[in-house]
Amino acid sequence: MMTLLSITGVNYTDLSPLKQRPNMNTNGGPLWSAQTNKPLLSGPGVDIRQIMILTYTDCFLGDVVKLLEMLTSLNSSRPGLSAEKIEYVTHIYSLYGGSVSSPATALMNMETQAMQISRPLDIDMLIIAHGSLEAISPPPDSTVNWLRTICSQSRCVVALGAGIFLLAATGLLHQRTVTTYSSLVSRLIAGYPTLRVKKSADFQRDGKFYTTSERINIKEMAQLLLLSDRGENGNDSRRVESSVSTDLCPLNSVFTRPQSIAYRVTFWWLTHIDQDLNMAQSADFLAMSERSFRRHFKLQTGYSPSVFLLLLRLELCRQALIDSDLPIDKIARRCGLLDGQQLARIFRRFIGTSPHQYRETNRQENLAALHPAYGDLFNARALPEWLSRFLTRVSPEKKQSILIYLQR
User: HTH araC/xylS-type domain spans which residues (predicted)?
Assistant: First the structure.
């Protein structure tokens, strides 16, 4: 059965189940392109990506379509780093199968497969549609188990708006940073108190999970998904797990401009992170007055340079606790702190636990009460992408540098 989604004359083809030819196995195709309505033959030069869409009664189908349209448009206009051509195909599911309509418009209708009876395929991306809170009831155990299975197979999982309630029911978002529509925030926090809900984010990424609010920038999110799908973010899991949101504009923009004051001094700090650095030295490096340096740095990052440097040292110590077996006191000194006792005090203040406990539990303990100054920069689980990029460019001057452990 071929499922057709028709929207004011524009057709999007769902390839469920897969169309097969003789001598082609189930996993091998061929598939039909949702972009060209022609058969896709897997092989050299073609990389087929499977997108699964989870819908439900009275969900808003338009949001899904907009995201798919933007993803397809950007994919067509932006060649990847590899020579392979990426083709996307979609599979549309609902809780019970059959026709699903959108309350937003009578022009939109989908025929779907029932998730309980359909065998899941190898999935690259799962998109859970947005809907009103009234449209989302607590899912049955069979749905929760199905979602867990699909999420474990998916490279990335996107929950649009209220779709996060279905995803949260699986328990896979425990201790993760998420966002949702502002009207749903209090309900989400009450129902799932272990989530770290960012109220001001347009969209939020934590690991392979993406969540969105009503302020979502479809193009920006599609670009992020496309970069991740093409593998252009790198294979380092610490980067992939970084929490990314558009409300962190100062760091996202400043740290992509090598000539900015914040970029230059942060690079210098990392190179000399084991030393007793002060703001006068930092200003001298930039050939500025200390007063001017402090003012410009805060304008660019929202932080005073002394606080930012302290939090930077703390974050490097935190990651070194996981990436190395060095004693805590030695980690502290190599990150420019006095000793392990000073690190312990800073760790408890900003992360809410001790370095020893953090290392022993391997980040699994409850860290919901992060200090806001730290939590707006870091998530206490993985280095943010901007810092990971810095670490790939810094050349440690000493063989004992802590950066050697963090660059592995």
Answer: 263-361
Distances (CA, A) of 243 to 221, 377, 385: 14, 9, 8
pLDDT of residue 28: 37
Helices 305-323 and 261-271: crossing angle in degrees, nearest 10, is 50
pLDDT 10s digits, 225-258? 777 666 544 333 333 334 334 333 346 567 878 8
Q: How far apart are CA 76 and CA 83, in angstroms?
A: 13
CATH number at residue 155: 3.40.50.880
The CA distance from 208 to 228, in Å, is: 9
Residue among 332, 345, 350, 355 nearest 402 (CA): 332
Instruction: Give the separation between CA 221 and CA 189, rounded to whole angstroms.
Output: 24
Tell me which residue range forms the domain holding 286. Answer: 251-406
Q: Is 378 exposed, middle or buried (0-12, 13-18, 19+ CB in 10 A)?
A: buried
* Structure confidence at residue 87 (pLDDT): 78
Tokens of 276: 């007793």
Mean pLDDT of the residues in the chain: 76
Q: Establish how many alpha carbons lie within 13 A of residue 96's alpha carbon, considering only the half-sphere containing its beta carbon.
A: 5
Q: Are residues 256 and 395 in the same domain?
A: yes
Assign residue 365 a region: left if phi > 0, alpha if psi is -120 to 50, beta otherwise?
beta
- In the three-class reduction of DSSP (H, G, I as helix; E, B as strand; rest coil), residue 52 is classed as strand
The number of residues in the chain equals 408
pLDDT value for 244: 39
Q: What secondary structure letter does DSSP report for 129?
A: P
